[in-house]
Design a protein that fits this description.
mainly beta; Ubiquitin-like (UB roll); 1 helix; about 30% strand
């Protein structure tokens, strides 16, 4: 579900349709929206699992202050999906713990 008419932000201007890959599954997104928006609209609630207890985390603050929505995006760990715009053909993975750090990407 996407909010088309927000009481404060006003009417949503939906951009062109994009396709992203989330854990190997194709998800429809729209140009100009945040990754987290597309994921929640597609029914995805778990974005990462904590290091110590392996507990699920998802969208919490939605303004980039916490780290509950971090995921691996195009090979880069710890991307805050609530403040990162979608790009066509992005490859997104559920993050486990601190993610994998790769030389030159982070």
């Amino acid at each position: 579900m996407r909010i088309d008419n927000h009481p404060i932000l006003g009417e949503s201007k939906k951009g062109r349709e994009l396709k992203i890959s989330v854990d190997g599954k194709e998800v429809i997104a729209y140009e100009g929206e945040m990754i987290a928006t597309a994921l929640v609209a597609s029914g995805l609630k778990v974005f990462r699992y904590t290091s110590k207890y392996k507990e699920p985390r998802g969208l919490f603050c939605a303004i980039g202050r916490c780290t509950d929505c971090v995921m691996e995006v195009n090979g880069r760990s710890n991307v805050r999906t609530c403040v990162t715009l979608v790009e066509d053909r992005m490859v997104i993975k559920t993050q486990k713990g601190l993610g994998e750090w790769k030389e030159g990407l982070n």
